[in-house]
Please model this.
Amino acid sequence: MLSPTLFPLFCALFLCLPVAVIFTVQRELTGVITPPEFGFRSLSVFSLYSRNVPDASSSPVVRIRQPIPKEDEPLLRLASRVNPNLPPGSTRKLAFMYLTTSPLPFAPLWEKFFNGCSKNLYNVYVHADPTREYDPPFSGVFLNRVIHSSKPSMRHTPTLTAAARRLIAHALLDDPLNYMFAVISPSCVPIRSFDFTYKTLVSSRKSFIEILKDEPWQFDRWTATGSHAMLPEVKLEEFRIGSQFWVLKRRHARVVARDRRIWVKFNKTCVREDSCYPEESYFSTLLNMRDPRGCVPATLTHVDWTVNDGGHPRMYEPEEVVPELILRLRKTRPRYGEDGINGSEWSAVERMDSFLFARKFSPEALEPLLGMARTVLFNDSAGGV
Ligand SMILES: *[C@@H]1O[C@H](CO)[C@@H](O)[C@H](O)[C@H]1NC(C)=O
Ligand SMILES: *[C@@H]1O[C@H](CO)[C@@H](O)[C@H](O)[C@H]1NC(C)=O
Ligand SMILES: *[C@@H]1O[C@H](CO)[C@@H](O)[C@H](O)[C@H]1NC(C)=O
Model:
């Protein structure tokens, strides 16, 4: 119990709280200089405290914008609270999330891809390892798009997965209209027009993420951080493998931002480097556990694994990059995982989603790609497909 003398004091303090919050918020707003690339989120602070404000009904709700956090924990915590739905009637946007440790060799091609389409239909985000050099620097649509929470990222560690989580969290907070979130690598190129890509993705109610079960290396991947390291949260039979190049819808992006339980199991140092690819299992495992029916279990980023060069798929060299290659990649049917989704649309009907992106292309392939950008790459009727 509070003593009788302290009680009025306590009440007074409590009544002052809204005022204190208002002043703190204002100080933060004027005190922080935020470069334009970092974006903001909206928050109605005043309405939270309206019951304590004597004439709340007459005071307008003031929308303030808060900087996006730089450190992982507050970043993901805030992102986990965003509205998973878009405001009714709003135009859906695509979030293109580039994860890189080098300059983007296909930046001029992406520039052409975005050229001419409305800026209200997409956002670009770049996660760039800050310990690397970027020469030439990011420019054009990539100018000032590097997210300020970027941290060092390397293969065979959980840092690539952490980077993708940061991109998701940043994009969730940056724009409430981001509807689909696609991860793109530096060696990845678009093989359809923006228009086609946009229509395909915003009209989907499901995420596109490869979810494969019973791959020959499932056990090795599951034990990469230690023989029982995944238990009890992720049992061997719950573990999934898939391409790290997915497109997640907003609700699933928020599932990723909210997840701690599964992430701590993947955010561990591997004991075996040769099977350490957490970025190829974390997202597939998590979404398969949480909402398998909300996923089309396939990636829309084409890759050729018939060649495996030390964990790297086939890389297309400039002389191979001809219109027929692009048309062939477009016509290929994606590989669909099967489990947990019995009776849903792709097992009932033969589903045939079109690849939108492809990898890996050698940086020297830029020239032939640019040469056929208008006639083939961004020409959706090229080759009759
Ligand atoms: C992931 O692991 C790294 C290195 O051990 C650690 O610094 C970081 O805090 C971890 N992140 C989470 C969210 O657990
Ligand atoms: C899965 O589909 C098959 C074939 O349509 C059906 O026989 C089976 O009962 C289904 N299983 C479940 C769990 O729905
Ligand atoms: C796109 O492809 C069609 C079919 O091959 C062709 O007729 C047309 O000329 C192409 N468009 C451009 C701009 O090259």
Notes: Confidence is low (pLDDT under 50) at residues 15-59. The first helix runs from residue 6 to 31. Residues 98 and 236 are 31 Å apart (CA to CA).
